[in-house]
Design a protein that fits this description.
The complex is a heterodimer of chains A (294) and B (229). Chain A is of the alpha+beta class. Helices cover 71% and strands 8% of the residues of chain A. The two termini of chain A are 17 Å apart. By secondary structure, chain B is an alpha/beta fold. Chain B starts with a strand and ends in a 9-residue tail after the last strand. Chain B has a domain of 63 residues. Chain B is globular and about 50 Å long.
């Protein structure tokens, strides 16, 4: 295909898009909506991943001892484990003070001091690497004198479960919407093909190549996909940056630190742009194959 | 040379073939009338030669090459050597006369410069040099058909095929169109005209190939519409 043909194809695509302007707009909008949802899910997944990592990197293993445990022997054993960064002893008295303070009114537990203190002695263990936390907790649990070693598996597990469930939901919705969008593209392109059926018949007799006939439709579909995606990525980008800024300023959401690194976000937005264009291309190819026997 | 060798074409769902055991040779530069009643196989013959369809049996050779074996590029080249003229003109209503003729060059990817040069020449050849900016609806039937001929001619085809070109035209206009075809033929282009216009055929005394029910009925060097023997 030479430059003259390319010019012709571009011109044809523009004419067709103008002719079916509102249908093209609707198609682009559907693509925009479906990709915005997909993009929203991807952004959420990235942030959930970050949140889990944050939680994990801050985890300490709380090691609670039996009342009769040999405190120094346990400490020695913990220190000898590989991957331990720091071990802090929290005596039962210190534990009670911390607990009382966390309840807001130290007087509530005033009667539990000394012999009546129900809390065990404890260690707070930090690992050198979060990946080692689970293994360390396991080893510490097996030590004599240790009643339990806990690092908040439940919280991490719950986050994973919720995000996994949301992921499935969002992927499902995105796929359905994407299919709908592709179907709309097929329909729009079909209208364009129908509008130019006579011309296409003549073109065949004039010796036009198959690609010369198909290409304008392909461009048309890709343009619809691309415009839709552009709208959705811009909207998504603006909404996300606004949300990220407000979350950063919100003192109560200090543990949610939204992902703002370009390296992590760029693939999502570039991927969405490509996907939308691809959807447009696939839709028009289906249509051209189906309605244009060249 | 165009050669049909024992060509049969059957369409699915039809008992009798549209063309049966048909053999024929045509030389470059000939002027040929294809005659016969409707459904005799004239259009099928044209479609087979354009390779819009493939023969059920037999071969069609163009300069010794079996056109059924043409790959995409060779097929395009084959089709681009053929200029087609239709009974219903098949002009694009929303394009001007100039644009309709230019279209034939556009789809071949020709440059704007070449289009600007060749289209006026083609329009002059068919006597419509001053009608370039008119729309088809503003022209008479005969003029519209001339635009169709100019569109077929503008790419300098080896062969011009006209399928019932005078079907929608009155007698005088038909005659003028045939004179135009003869002029084109004198320039070296092979001209094949499928027609019912018996008076024109009789008057022009060209080679006549007569088909009936898919069979070659008659092939005469200087023939007439009906069998006179």
């Amino acid at each position: 295909m030479n430059i003259n043909s390319l010019k012709y194809c571009l011109r044809q695509s523009v004419v067709s898009l103008k002719r079916n302007f509102w249908l093209a707009v609707v198609t682009s909008c559907i693509i925009a909506v479906s990709l915005a949802i997909l993009g929203g899910f991807l952004l959420m997944a990235v942030n959930a991943g970050q949140l889990i990592r944050n939680v994990e990197s801050n985890v300490e293993i709380g090691v609670f001892l039996y009342a009769d445990a040999d405190v120094s022997a346990v400490q020695k054993q913990i220190n000898s484990l590989e991957g331990v960064n720091s071990v802090t002893f929290v005596s039962k008295d210190e534990g009670l003070v911390t607990f009382s303070n966390s309840l807001g009114d130290p007087a509530l537990l005033a009667g539990l001091k000394g012999e009546d203190n129900p809390l065990p002695d404890a260690y707070r263990v930090k690992a050198t690497d979060t990946a080692l936390v689970a293994g360390l907790a396991e080893s510490i649990r097996a030590m004599p004198g240790v009643e339990m070693a806990d690092y908040g598996e439940e919280l991490v597990g719950r986050i994973l479960k919720i995000t996994g469930w949301l992921n499935t939901l969002f992927v499902g919705i995105s796929v359905l919407l994407a299919l709908g969008a592709v179907f709309l593209i097929v329909t729009t392109i079909r209208l364009s093909v129908m509008a130019r059926l006579e011309e296409i018949g003549i073109m065949k007799y004039l010796g036009a190549s198959d690609w010369y006939i198909r290409f304008p439709f392909l461009l048309e579909g890709m343009a619809m996909g691309w415009v839709g995606t552009l709208v959705s990525t811009i909207a998504l980008g603006l909404a996300y940056s606004k949300l990220a800024t407000s979350l950063r300023q919100d003192a109560f959401a200090f543990f949610i630190r939204p992902v703002t690194s370009v390296e992590q976000l760029a693939p999502i937005f570039v991927g969405l742009l490509l996907l939308g264009t691809l959807m447009g291309g696939i839709g028009s190819l289906i249509s051209v194959r189906k309605f244009l026997r060249v | 040379m165009i050669e049909f060798k024992d060509v049969t074409k059957s369409y699915p769902g039809s008992d009798t073939p549209a063309l049966a055991d048909f053999s024929l040779q045509m030389e470059h530069g000939e002027f040929i009338f294809l005659v016969g009643p409707s459904g005799a196989g004239k259009s099928t013959l044209i479609k087979l030669f354009f390779r819009e369809q493939l023969p059920t049996e037999g071969q069609i050779l163009f300069d010794g090459k079996n056109i059924a074996t043409f790959e995409k590029a060779a097929l395009l080249k084959h089709r681009r050597q053929i200029g087609m003229v239709f009974q219903d003109f098949r002009l694009l209503k929303q394009k001007t006369v100039f644009e309709n003729v230019a279209f034939a060059l556009e789809v071949l990817g020709k440059s704007a410069k070449e289009i600007q040069e060749k289209v006026p020449l083609a329009l002059a050849k068919v006597g419509l040099a001053d009608k370039g900016s008119s729309f088809p609806a503003e022209l008479s039937g005969g003029e519209q058909q001339r635009v169709g001929v100019a569109r077929a001619l503008v790419k300098d085809p080896l062969i011009l095929i006209a399928d019932e070109p005078t079907g929608n035209l009155d007698r005088d206009t038909s005659w003028q169109l045939m004179e135009l075809f003869e002029t084109i033929n004198q320039g070296g282009t092979t001209v094949i005209v499928a027609t019912h216009a018996w008076d024109v055929v009789d008057r022009m005394q060209k080679r006549v190939i007569s088909l009936e029910a898919g069979h070659l009925n008659r092939d005469e060097k200087r023939g007439s519409y009906r069998d006179e023997h």
